[in-house]
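Section 3.1: Structural characterization of target chains.
Under the original work plan, the team committed to producing a structural model for every single-chain target entering the pipeline before any wet-lab resources were allocated. The record below documents one such target. The sequence was received from the expression subgroup and is listed exactly as submitted; it comprises 378 residues.
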Amino acid sequence: MTTVSLVGSTGSVGTQAIEVIRTAPERYDVVALAAARSVDALAAQAAELRPQYVAVADEAAAPDLKDRLPAGTELLVGPDALAHIATTADVTVNGVVGFAGLPVTLAALQAGKRLALANKESLIAAGPVVQRARRTPGAEILPVDSEHCAVHQCLRAGTEVTRIVLTASGGPFRGRTDLAEVTVDEALAHPTWAMGPKITVDSSTLMNKGLEVIEAHELFGVGYDQIDVIVHPQSIVHSMVEFSDGATVAQLSLPDMRLPIGYALAYPERLAAPFGAIDWATLTQLDFEPPDLGTFRCLALAYEAGRHGETAPAWLNAANEVAVQAFLDKRIRWADIAGVIESTLERWPGTRATDLDVVLQADHDARRHATNALGAAA
């Protein structure tokens, strides 16, 4: 039986991972659950799964949670508790949102574990540092993003890669250019995926796809000139790989995050539950179009930061997190997000990503510059 640690268990990825595990209880034993502060959800999950450990990052939430855990379940508390949880199982699912997921990623890899990675920001912001941890014997990353899971599956067809094509739904604003006054509710109305607010806003700006370009570079070792983005509104083709002989292999399924989660848990096998299976009698159309880089500038900014490398992606990610939160708080407009990121990237000092402390400092510095840029945007 494979033991599993779910970090970010109360979020979208974590709850769907539990749905996947319910389909194969004979294969998986959830030994650890962790979240930032969701006491009610953690207590309910612990009552069902009866793990060895439950971790909560917010110390203020601990007293209430402790009294609601099953007998025999140990409570771990504080920011370091989530990283510790990542070392307790064969497979760690990192569903933490944003840069906060970096310690979880590093802890799992440095412990030689399989990391089912839904937290793209940690790989993007600290790529060189994560790559060193990835070389630990036994460590491996299985991407949970639908696009990178698709690429991973396509690469099982061969290694002679000439191009990776990441597909984007285009988000709620595909085809629009009148975006000066769009609302938060409009940005959160994704046409095909049900996700958390941060990643949904990222999808609306195409920053999510930009981050995935950097992630693809880090995961698969291909150059930025070999990574393309194409808009595919049906979200049926999740990504494609073109090989040296001209053949293109694609992975198709209905949009369902349980498929990549199950793939990461079961690899190199596959689960029996057919998440995302297509009814080919009803699928009548697949459309593709180039992204509008003039309207959706975040995608171009991500390519720029990726090509700079070192700590530039950390600056990009930090500025984006600050800008998106400001938009969600209605302190800036949707149209200001790219400007805040661009202004912040212009101040990147060219620092190399030599170790974790340097990456943490880069994140801190970028957030400070981005916060200052908010004033000019408001």
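The first strand starts at residue 2 and ends at 7.
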